[in-house]
UniProtKB/TrEMBL annotation:
Protein name (Swiss-Prot/TrEMBL): Ankyrin repeat family protein
GN (gene name): LOC102604063
SUPFAM superfamilies: Ankyrin repeat
Record keywords: ANK repeat, Repeat
Provenance organism: Solanum tuberosum
Gene3D superfamilies noted in UniProt: Ankyrin repeat-containing domain
Length: 196
């Protein structure tokens, strides 16, 4: 009874602090109904508790929140810039969190407001293991962002050669001309990656 009373007094801001600091004990102490209700909370950036825990790298809190969500709506819910938890996990490089999100139905091809997918972020930061995971879950390797940048071109420009190798080894690249373009280091992307 005392536990239920104390958990009922937990404020939204305290839940966000717990997600950010990794206080899994607070989330474990919540009654199921309150935990489920907390999944719809958003902070000033329109980020959910799950998103905050993912961005802060707190695997245990991510596990609790992801398991509490009976749908994939929270897993695929974007903030005010369209970032979903998978974008943040791929960008920060937390393989275990990426695996959790994928196992709960995260959409690997969702784009944020800049048109970037989780694979764009993994590739641009040289996160090879995460890129492999995303590709194995159906990430589109030829996706363009709003600036018409192909994820492949971005990785090449950033000299992430191990990433380029992973992408070319996947079954999605069949464009020999693109391979020639990348290996010859032509400075402009003419017809292959045009934004038409």
């Amino acid at each position: 009874m005392e536990s239920e009373k104390s958990s009922a007094q937990i404020k939204d801001k305290d839940l966000f602090k717990a997600a950010e600091s990794g206080d899994s004990s607070l989330f474990k102490s919540l009654p199921e109904e309150q935990l489920l209700k907390s999944l719809s909370l958003r902070n000033e950036d329109a980020r959910s508790l799950l998103h905050v825990a993912v961005s802060s790298g707190h695997t245990e809190v991510v596990k609790i929140l992801a398991a509490a969500d009976p749908s994939v709506s929270g897993i695929n819910s974007g903030d005010e810039e369209g970032w979903v938890p998978l974008h943040s996990a791929a960008s920060s490089g937390n393989v275990e969190i990426v695996e959790i999100l994928l196992s709960r139905g995260a959409d690997v091809n969702l784009k944020n407001d800049g048109g970037r997918t989780a694979l764009h972020y993994a590739a641009s930061k040289g996160r090879a293991k995460i890129a492999e995971l995303l590709i194995s879950h159906g990430a589109k390797i030829n996706a363009k962002d709003k600036a018409c940048n192909l994820m492949l071109w971005t990785t090449h420009l950033l000299e992430k050669f191990s990433m380029v190798k992973i992408i070319f080894e996947s079954k999605g690249v069949h464009n020999f001309l693109l391979l020639v373009l990348l290996t010859c280091d032509i400075g402009r992307m003419h017809p292959i990656a045009s934004c038409s």
